[in-house]
Amino acid sequence: MPRVSWLELAEDGALGYLMLLHSYLIRRPGRSVVWSFSCCEVAACRAWRDVDTLINTAGSGHLDVVKWLDKHGVHPTGTAAIACAARSGHLDVVKWLHKHQTDRCFDLLLDDAATSGRLDIVQYLHEELKANSTTSAMDGAAREGHLEVVNWLHKHRNVGCTTSAMDWAARNGHLHVVEWLHANRTEGCTTWAMDWAALGGHLDIVKWLHENRSEGCLDNAMDNAAKNGHLHIIKWLHANRTEGCTVNAMSEAAANGHLGVIRWLLSNRREGSTSVALWWALMRNHL
């Protein structure tokens, strides 16, 4: 039968079971017992006092269990619990921990909340806690496609972002974020933007960067596209860009079994291949 730990009960918000088991252990200190509750066994021990239980419970959003743990000696220390709650979007838990924990350093919490797209928590940290942040806030929000958060940070914070914002937005296929950053920010991007967009097979972003940005790409772009089998990207780069590729294009295509890419490269490019490419293909039965 499945065994359920204190940590699992806390994370699941099973406050009733926790209270019952706690009462039993108070009457029998030092005991380690196994109780049966209908279809499951609960392994009960003193492990509930571990602060990791509080951290994971905060991340699961069970405020009633967080309060109960605090009442029975598991107090919030440091910022791990409030950071976990912030990343998971549990504003009520964040507010309670803010009021009841002694550690008042909330630096970098805003970065985590922004990356997770939790605008309500970002606003609370900004307005109530006066939390500091870094460029990782907007960079992370852009990377994950949270344009609403990116826009809010742009209007209300003065930290800004780095070229990583547009580079990662391009890599993850967030064209709307790439367009917004281009129109509203000055950091721009690097050649990684198009290189990574090619890696992800995002032809719309590759085209947009080609038409609207001047950074261009490297031969990594076609190599990356070959690695992941994006023949449509390879053909477009071949027709519209001059960077070409390296022998790694065929090596990576062979290693990953992209036979159509190999055939096209052999017919249309002159970079050739290496013995490594053929060896990988043969080893994996791709030829």
Automatic annotation (TrEMBL):
It holds the Pfam family Ank_2. InterPro entries: Ankyrin_rpt, Ankyrin_rpt-contain_sf, SecEffector_AnkRepeat. This is Ankyrin repeat-containing domain.
